[in-house]
Design brief:
Layout: E1 4-13, E2 20-28, E3 34-39, E4 42-43, E5 45-51, E6 57-65, E7 70-82, E8 84-91, E9 104-118, E10 124-132, E11 138-140, E12 145-151, E13 159-167, E14 171-191, E15 199-206, E16 218-225
Antiparallel strand pairs: 1-7, 2-6, 2-8, 3-4, 3-7, 5-6, 9-14, 10-13, 10-14, 11-14, 12-13, 15-16
Length: 258
């Protein structure tokens, strides 16, 4: 929106569990700051911000954990009238205790805006890039899914803002191509999923194969947890195979520390 200190639009939150709402603000003149962001009247928390070179523009990211489902208004208030672009994306299955990693950002004056994000498989990286309006255009990098990309114009004090997402990996580079070499700023975080136990069971018998009557068979059931959190209170049921008898007192167990 052109020359305003108040930006409002509506956003719909789905019904999935463990939700988070991420809102970004791209404004020209980094000396003008975002003083508040609300969704349905509930205040968001700023994740981080980055000014462009010479404070010519500003990128900021905001979050709200467990937003209510349905449609409500997003209201962004700034410290002064300025050209501004806003975007919003909501996610579910996000860890509510540690919802994201460290905010990372960068700035420069060139035709490519980029930032490197530490992430992991199963996570989702979300970024926002801001450029002066006379950059003419912003194009999200390969592998990124553009979530919004708009501007207030192409000259003077105008601004362009874009946001995108990409699947997590040990290192993710989020990048945007500008239509002309102009000042830019970019910020990003990696969203962390809800972690669950992942139990694997392996059963073996010794001796293996067909055995004559009267042979003692020793069965072993090994289990491991490949998930991201500890498992507890699970039950292993191992039926006695046909044509065998259970030897009372033969059961032993050994629980490892890993």
């Amino acid at each position: 929106m052109a020359n305003t200190n108040n930006l409002t639009w509506s956003h719909t939150i789905g019904s999935g569990s463990n939700r988070i709402l991420i809102i970004s603000v791209s404004n020209r003149d980094g000396n003008k700051t975002v003083t508040s962001v609300t969704y349905g009247g509930t205040a968001l928390t700023q994740i981080g911000f980055q000014n462009g070179p010479g404070n010519q523009n500003r990128t900021s990211l905001w979050k709200l954990l467990a937003p209510p489902t349905g449609t409500a208004s997003i209201v962004v208030t700034l410290s002064g009238s300025v050209n501004v672009v806003g975007g919003a994306v909501s996610f579910d299955n996000v860890d509510q205790t540690t919802p994201h990693g460290t905010f990372v950002s960068a700035n420069g004056t060139s035709t490519t805006a980029s930032v490197n994000v530490t992430s992991a498989a199963g996570e989702v990286v979300i970024d926002t890039a801001t450029a002066n309006g006379d950059a003419v255009s912003l194009t999200a990098g390969a592998g990124q899914t553009a979530q919004w990309n708009t501007g207030t114009g192409t000259a003077g004090g105008n601004v362009r803002g874009g946001g995108s997402t990409e699947g997590g990996a040990p290192a993710v580079t989020m990048s945007w191509t500008l239509g002309a070499s102009k000042p830019w700023s970019i910020g990003a975080v990696s969203l962390k999923p809800v972690l669950v136990p992942d139990i694997t069971l392996t059963k073996s018998v010794n001796p293996a194969g067909v055995q004559p009557p009267g042979t003692d068979l020793t069965y072993a059931v090994d289990f491991s947890n490949g998930g991201g959190v500890a498992g507890s209170s699970f039950l292993i049921t191992d039926p006695i195979p046909a044509n065998t008898d259970f030897k009372v007192g033969s059961v032993t167990s050994s629980l490892g520390k890993d």
